[in-house]
Amino acid sequence: MTTLLLIIIYIAFISLGLPDSMLGAAWPTVRTDLSVPMAGAGLISMIISGGTIISSILSGKLIQKFGTGKLTLMSVFMTAMALLGFSFSQNYIWLCLVAIPLGLGAGAVDAALNNFVALHFSARHMSWLHCFWGIGATAGPVIMSVAIIQNGSWQKGYLSVAIIQICLVIILLFSLPLWRLFGENRQEDIAVENQNQHVFRLPGIPPALLSFFCYCALETTAGLWGASYLVQTKGVSADVAAGWISMYYLGITLGRLVNGFITTKWSNPALIRGGQIIIGIGAILLLISNQTYVNLLGLILIGMGCAPIFPSMLHETPVRFGKNNSEKLMGVQMAVAYMGTTLVPPAIGVLSGVVGIQFYPIFILVLLIVMLVSSEKINKIVTRRTLK
């Protein structure tokens, strides 16, 4: 039964990744059909991110009220209805409106499942969980592309993913008894929570949150501006640069698959540290070399370095701050991570317009250094507490 529940959780994370990459793939067609400017996608993306941040912050209370199983069911149902709304949309305002439940649903299920796996499964399953998200994020644009090519309709792409989500809702509905195997009666946890109203005063909270902020800012920045850097600084053609960015994301996905097999030999802090070193090597290669395939290797190394960091940081949450605090802090960590994703890449885009995109590897290295210092600080705090 445990294996069956784990499979369902993996499937849920594939479905979580599916819509994340669809807007960008669909937008050239959407903006033509609805006669909206190119920048219109930014507002929709910010609405989704805003909803995700809000629901992530509230996820601790929601988990305690409903339990992980019911909250996952409700969240996936919300995202399914939102995607169905996208498929029927005929104007830009409607897209903005249905983006609200899409963000709210995604943030709640993301935080809830991350917390559940961190509490009840090994580090390898956390890494594989995020690998399955990568599969969904990779498949989303493919589904959209097929829908546009075959039907000439981006709405059909969203409809296809909505149907997948509805099927998952049915699976989750029948799987509710499985969650009770892990104590989905929340009364004991609520009692513990009420005794711990000062969870945010725990030692190490600020550096932990800063490391989440910097990691997600780095991952998104690397993917968003990598192609522009290659084209404008390294002289790579636009079509080749786009393909190379896909290799960056493939590096993240495959890296997390491999990472799951080595978690039994390496601790979470060691995996985080190793990933940071690999990112640094990749960024330095991009900075110092003009060789075509060295630049490609640099991008792949940045992706592979990113692979173990996020799942390892999430899985380390109960170790750093205790299982009783994990539910509340997981949601806050996810919210701060989404803030990094939302705020930093656009700011770097504006900065690049002033100082030049050639500083792209420097931006990556600055975010990396701040993340590294923050991670090492929280590691020292945990080590001191363990030795007492």
Q: Given this structure, which CATH class of the largest domain is correct?
A: Mainly Alpha
Please report the total strand number as a whole number. 0
Low-confidence stretches: 185-197
Order of helices and strands: HHHHHHHHHHHHHHH
Overall tally of structural domains:
2
The CATH homology group name of the largest domain: MFS general substrate transporter like domains
Helix percent reads over 70%
Main beta sheet: strand number and arrangement?
Answer: none
Radius of gyration: 21 Å
Question: Quick check: average pLDDT?
Answer: 86
What structural category do the secondary elements indicate?
Answer: mainly alpha
Named CATH architecture of the largest domain: Up-down Bundle
Strand content: under 5%
The CATH topology name of the largest domain reads Growth Hormone, Chain: A
Shape: globular
Compute the separation of the termini in Å. 39 Å
**Count of runs of 4 or more consecutive helical residues:** 15
GO molecular function: transmembrane transporter activity
Organism: Ruminiclostridium cellulolyticum (strain ATCC 35319 / DSM 5812 / JCM 6584 / H10) (Clostridium cellulolyticum)
Domain Major facilitator superfamily (MFS) profile: 5-378
Family: Belongs to the major facilitator superfamily.
